């Protein structure tokens, strides 16, 4: 039986506490060897919790199992909790795999789930795993809540102007608190609030001025308008510690109601007064830039209609192009553009403005993509294009390999001739010395040839990889042909296969590069050029 193995650890820090990746792999390999099973795929998940199904290797494994030409018949894990610690995910994905004829097998919790007793045992193991995970999360949260109420830090980087310091509490225990940072950072924070409260400067102008003065941001780079906004709304600067603001089950995308926050007054030294902080909030409301609303509900955020966002880049500064819409009240109505993200965040001093009409650029890219990727589906074109790219990319290596092979062959023949002369007594006195030199040269060249060819491999692409690419291309074409394309699905495929997309502002030429990779190795790349008309 052909199988895939799935290995997971929750986080890098837990590698030592849990059964490490190499130990899990070794145990599974031994188990498969004893059973006579062939391992055809390995899916290694590092630093991913099994509380959700948002795991790249896990989803890749499920997608591969659902294909008609799936390469394996079972998924082998060390324990069922490596597969999932959430009962409903466990049931759903096992049922999904079962429909495709794929089993989930545990090395240490061996059940076949074919008898009522085995089904009961497997179900109990899954429930125990979920209970353990939920109970652990509850206990950890209790400790963090109490920590926050006392004003201690629960982790994370302190805001600009603060530093983390550990204080001793006895019994060898320490707690993290925030203390004031360098004087120059404190002065910058006060200046930012003062400019926004009393000088009429907005986020972008403040960021531009800080960049003009070459004052480094918290990470040592340039300032962005979003960074200034975050500072203006951060209550930490009045000495207030707010914890539990975000729902971490949604990776911080969903904000909790303020009534659920853990708020501690005077948790650390303040940098600005309550009055100037409140003045900034009032000004933000007047500016109508989202002021007074420290967070927006996750549910109210609409999916972006810009499917080339983040894929397209600005050729001037290298920033990603993002979607931007004009007001519907403007003359001509609402219009949509792709605009340089660097310009929007840091102003025209960082990058001059350039906006490209959304409908037009998406139309040009769609037409060019459709024509090219359709040609890859014809016959065996996909494999042949990858083979040609591989040959061209390794042309220098191939030429060097051929030259070294000819040199080695020439040396061997010369050595044979001298050895023949020596054996029949025709050799000159210096022939023995020449022979030693040539043999030494042959040894050195042979070692160089071995080093050159050790990293060399003939062109080979697994059938399942080709099948996966063909499936994605067909999906891409289908989406592009829809009357109302799904921008989220298009964005996912564009991000995966478009390696470069930009417009030269001077020549108005569009450069679009399509790239196929396998195990971080580029298997095919093609750059297409179109005119902006």
Cα(first) to Cα(last) distance is 57 Å
Secondary-structure class: alpha+beta
Residue ranges: pLDDT <50 for 5 or more in a row? 12-18, 289-301
Strand order of the biggest β-sheet: 2-1-3-4
Overall 3D shape: extended
In what range is the share of β-strand residues? Answer: 15-25%
What is the multimeric organization of the chains shown? single chain
Determine the fraction of residues in helical runs and give it as a percent range. Answer: 40-55%
Explain what this protein looks like in three dimensions.
- There is one protein chain.
- With 533 residues, the protein is an alpha+beta fold.
- The protein has helices at 21-35, 56-66, 80-83, 87-99, 116-149, 183-198, 203-212, 225-232, 274-287, 341-346, 358-377, 381-393, 395-423, 431-454, 463-481, 487-497, and strands at 2-9, 38-46, 74-77, 103-106, 162-170, 173-180, 241-243, 246-247, 254-255, 262-264, 321-325, 336-340, 355-357, 498-504, 509-518, 521-531.
- The strands form 6 sheets. Strands 2-1-3-4 form a 4-stranded parallel sheet, with helices on both faces. It has a 3-stranded antiparallel sheet with strand order 11-12-13. The protein has a 3-stranded antiparallel sheet with strand order 14-15-16.
- A hairpin with a 6-residue loop joins β8 (246-247) and β9 (254-255).
- Mean pLDDT is 80; it is low at 12-18 and 289-301.
Outline of the structure:
With 533 residues, the chain is α+β, with helices and mostly antiparallel strands. The protein has helices spanning 21-35, 56-66, 80-83, 87-99, 116-149, 183-198, 203-212, 225-232, 274-287, 341-346, 358-377, 381-393, 395-423, 431-454, 463-481, 487-497; strands spanning 2-9, 38-46, 74-77, 103-106, 162-170, 173-180, 241-243, 246-247, 254-255, 262-264, 321-325, 336-340, 355-357, 498-504, 509-518, 521-531. The strands form 6 sheets. Strands 2-1-3-4 form a 4-stranded parallel β-sheet, sandwiched between helices. A 3-stranded antiparallel β-sheet has the order 11-12-13.
């Amino acid at each position: 039986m052909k199988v895939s193995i799935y290995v997971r650890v929750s986080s890098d820090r837990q590698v030592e506490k849990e059964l490490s990746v190499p130990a899990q792999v070794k145990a599974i390999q031994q188990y498969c060897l004893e059973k006579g099973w062939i391992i055809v795929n390995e899916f290694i998940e590092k630093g991913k919790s099994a509380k959700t199904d948002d795991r790249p290797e896990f989803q890749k494994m499920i997608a591969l199992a659902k294909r008609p030409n799936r390469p394996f018949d079972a998924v082998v894990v060390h324990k069922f909790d490596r597969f999932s610690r959430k009962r409903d995910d466990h049931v759903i994905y096992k049922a999904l795999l079962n429909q495709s004829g794929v089993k989930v097998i545990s090395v240490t919790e061996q059940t076949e789930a074919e008898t009522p007793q085995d089904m009961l045992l497997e179900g109990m193991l899954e429930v125990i795993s979920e209970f353990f995970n939920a109970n652990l999360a509850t206990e950890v949260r209790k400790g963090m809540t109490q920590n926050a109420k006392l004003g201690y830090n629960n982790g994370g980087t302190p805001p600009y102007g603060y530093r983390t310091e550990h204080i001793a509490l006895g019994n060898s225990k320490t707690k993290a608190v925030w203390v004031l940072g360098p004087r120059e950072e404190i002065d910058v924070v006060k200046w930012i609030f003062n400019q926004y409260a009393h000088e009429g400067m907005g986020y972008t102008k403040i960021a531009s001025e800080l960049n003009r003065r070459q004052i480094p941001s918290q990470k040592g780079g340039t300032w962005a308008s979003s960074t200034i906004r975050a500072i203006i709304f951060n209550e930490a600067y009045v000495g207030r510690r707010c914890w539990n603001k975000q729902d971490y089950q949604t990776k911080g995308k969903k904000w909790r109601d303020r009534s659920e926050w853990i708020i501690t007054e005077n948790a650390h030294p303040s940098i600005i007064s309550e009055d100037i902080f409140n003045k900034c909030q009032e000004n933000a409301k007047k500016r109508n830039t989202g002021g007074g609303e420290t967070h927006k509900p996750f549910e109210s955020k609409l999916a972006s209609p810009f499917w080339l966002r983040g894929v397209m880049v600005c050729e001037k500064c290298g920033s990603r192009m993002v979607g931007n819409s004009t007001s519907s009240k403007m003359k001509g109505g609402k219009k949509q553009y792709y605009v340089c993200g660097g310009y929007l965040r840091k102003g025209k001093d960082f990058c001059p403005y350039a906006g490209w009409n959304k409908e037009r650029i998406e139309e040009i890219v769609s037409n060019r993509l459709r024509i090219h990727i359709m040609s890859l589906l014809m016959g065996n074109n996909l494999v042949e294009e990858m083979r040609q790219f591989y040959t061209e990319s390794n042309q220098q290596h191939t030429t060097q390999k051929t030259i070294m092979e000819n040199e080695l062959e020439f040396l061997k023949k010369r050595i044979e001739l001298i050895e023949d002369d020596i054996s029949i007594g025709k050799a000159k006195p210096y022939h023995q010395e020449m022979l030693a030199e040539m043999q030494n040269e042959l040894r050195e060249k042979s070692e160089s040839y071995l080093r050159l060819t050790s990293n060399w491999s003939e062109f080979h692409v697994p059938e399942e990889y080709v099948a996966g690419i063909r499936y994605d291309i067909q999906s891409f074409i289908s989406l592009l042909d829809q009357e109302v394309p799904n921008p989220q699905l298009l964005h996912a495929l564009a991000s995966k296969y478009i390696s470069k997309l930009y417009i030269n502002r001077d020549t108005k030429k569009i450069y679009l590069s399509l790239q196929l990779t396998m195990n971080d190795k580029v298997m095919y790349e093609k750059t297409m050029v179109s005119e902006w008309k």
